[in-house]
Amino acid sequence: MRKFFPVEELARDQRFEQITMRQAQADPRTVLNAESRNKTNRLTPDRADASDRARGLMHGIFVGEIQALEGAGRTCWDFETGTEAPFALKLDMARQAWDEARHVEISVKLSDWMGTEIGQFAENTVLFEAACSNDPVLRLAGVNRALEGLAIDVFTTMKEFGDLAGDPFLEFCEDWMLADEVTHVKMGSDWLRRITENDAERRKKALEFQQVVDKLFSFGGTRSDSKESPIGLARRFRELAGFTDTEVEDIAEMSLKALEERKAFAAAALAGDTTADPA
Amino acid sequence: MTVTVTPEEFRFVHFDAAQTARIADDVARLTGIDRPVQVEIDETTPLSRVRIDLGDTIVLHVESGAFEDTKRPRHQSETATAASLARCLLKARDRLEGGFGEAPTDDDLTLQQAAAWDTYCAGRMARLGLTVNQQRFRYNFRNRFGFTDQVDTRFERVWAADALTWGELQSLTSGESMVVDAP
Predict the structure, then answer these.
(1) I want to staple A100 with a disulfide (CB 3.0 to 4.6 A). Which of A17, A69, A150, B84 is the partner?
(2) With contact defined as beta carbons under 8 Å apart, do B52 and B106 qualify?
């Protein structure tokens, strides 16, 4: 079986439409007349468009779980046991793949509950792209710490949404998936420390890679402490998952920077930069 | 009946004014609208609100997200366009035909009132043969009224209803009374 699978060849049926992060961020409408819109973009039930936005985010979680499953599964297969990755690490990745598969099923059921069809929204493939590194330590940094860290933020937002709306299924399911994600991040943090214990340079490289991925996963400001971002930064759960206070502050700062950069990027697209046009 | 769409050319989205006019014409006939319709698309926002101005001409101020294909951002969806137009034109018809005189203006509708009216429109759209995901509207109704069996029963009644007045719609959604089905 083939190793190191490219993002362009992920197996999807005709229901799915995939877009890149560049396409997702190049929409000039997101910055036009922005000052006349709501001061907050945070997903809460008191928004007039709350149900539809929640449906969109739920679909994003669904495709994210598929890509997380693919990422963890690839880590089990792509690296030689012993020489490239310890067996126990692969066992953890297999356990994670099992969790992600369950999350996919839960997300399908929640989407159905919310009135969303599979593939109804575009699938952003950026999550799997973070899982394509050929160094298992970088993969742990990208997938377990950055991707699963984002999952903690997203699930916390959705759990709060379900709680406020009085939706017992959404609140319950997100809470349980959130608990799994905290475990996945913790696994990534622990393995990163263990494998790079005597290799400071490799650890530094992995943490730098994580920063790059974290910035990507800030989705141009979709996740940050700012009320302009639909998804907040779940500081407490990140702490439980093994992030230090400094790391959380760094992500918060980076997310706000990503928000400003996305605004500038969309403005450039508006000014006629055709490379930003998704058409 | 005439339908006009502005702008004729789009800069920020890949929409088609002629296609929009054709869909609007079909939907206006389907929903029984007998006066000119003007569709003004605001392509500078990805949001999906629609504002209705009633007069000799029905003017629909549409944010581009209301017509957008969620699979392909910035591209137009025929299904979404038809659904958004139908929902607005049914609301316009409700106000024009009478019985909805005491309904607040669109801007003053509460989230519950808006959800109830959307449900009432969506049920009729489904019976007119338009593509409507009932569960999507059920979910929105639950978000506004609660996740209980009683609320689901009210949803079913609103969904199945025709020719309601505003007062009847309010009674149905509040659970104060039930409309008796015709024999």
Answers:
(1) A69
(2) yes
Asked if the structure places residue B127 within a domain, the reply is yes
Q: Do A115 and B139 touch (CB under 8 A)?
A: yes
Last residue of a domain, one of B72, B97, B122: B97
Whether the CB-CB separation of A29 and B9 falls below 8 Å is answered with no
Count of beta carbons in the 10 Å neighbourhood of residue B128:
14
End-to-end Cα separation, chain A, in angstroms: 35
Q: Which residue of B has its CA nearest to A115?
A: B136
Q: Does A6 touch chain B (CB under 8 A)?
A: no
What pLDDT digit, counting tens, does each position of A201-246 carry?
A: 999 998 888 888 887 777 667 777 877 777 788 888 788 777 888 8
- Cα angle at A41 between A35 and A42, to 5 degrees? 155
Tokens coding B172: 């149905």
Is some CB atom of chain B closer than 8 A to the CB atom of A31?
Answer: no
Q: Which domains does chain A have, with CATH numbers?
A: 16-22+43-267 (1.20.1260.10)
Does B91 share its domain with B112?
no
Is B180 a domain residue?
no
| CA gap A245, A225 in Å, rounded | 15
Domain that holds residue B112: 106-174
For B45, the closest of A32, A52, A165 (CB atoms) is: A32
A166-A169-A174 Cα angle (round to 5): 100
> Whole-angstrom Cα distance, residue A5 to residue A146?
20
CA-CA distance, B119 to B140, in Å (whole number)? 9
* A80: its two tokens: 């030689």
The helix/strand/coil state of B2 is coil
Q: Please, are residues A240 and A182 in contact by the beta-carbon 8 Å criterion? A: yes
Amino acid present at A214 = D
Q: Please name which of A137, A131, A124 lies closest in space to residue A220, comparing C-alpha atoms.
A: A124
Give A153-180 pLDDT, tens digit per residue. 999 999 999 999 999 999 999 999 999 9
Give the phi and the psi of residue A80 in degrees, each rounded to 5: -70, 135
Of B71, B137, B147, the CB nearest to A166: B147
A49-85 as b/e, with b when 16 or more CB fall inside 10 Å? ebbbbbbbbbbbbbbbbbbbbbbbbbbbebbeeeeeb
Considering chain A, what percentage of its residues have pLDDT values greater than 70? 91
Q: Which candidate, A177, A170, A154, places its Cα nearest to that of A233?
A: A154
